[in-house]
Give the backbone structure.
Amino acid sequence: MERVPILKIGDILLVSIQVDMSDQTALQLQEDLAERIVATGCHGVIIDITALDIVDSFVGRMLSTIASISKVLDAETVVVGMRPAVAITLVELGLSLNGIRTALNVERGMELVAAARADESPYDHELADESDEAETTGSP
């Protein structure tokens, strides 16, 4: 069985799908990616599907599931390199790919991940400030 490589670039995991996605390969990718997110603590996942000519309903659902798993593990998912024919097929199949952001290429995908993390930072700092105040004042 072929495995899809997962590369770490800074705070992002890059998945470049270069093989036809069988059901087993797709399921293995979900598991491998979840393990890598936890192991590395990365906050972004970019899935490059430039090499995919055809996306069926199973692969479409797999992309949506990966995005959901990544979000639960505190990582944003961006799918890049979608060909027009693939986009048309996904729409015709009625797959909305909830929770997945898309970009034209890897560079723009990295910008989206960085922007998403920047948008979350003020909230994270607010929580840290509140816990610091609680420790300082002794209140719970």
Observations:
- Helices lie at 23-40, 57-72, 84-92, 106-137.
- The first helix runs from residue 23 to 40.
- The chain has one domain: 6-135.
- Confidence is low (pLDDT under 50) at residues 122-128, 131-137.
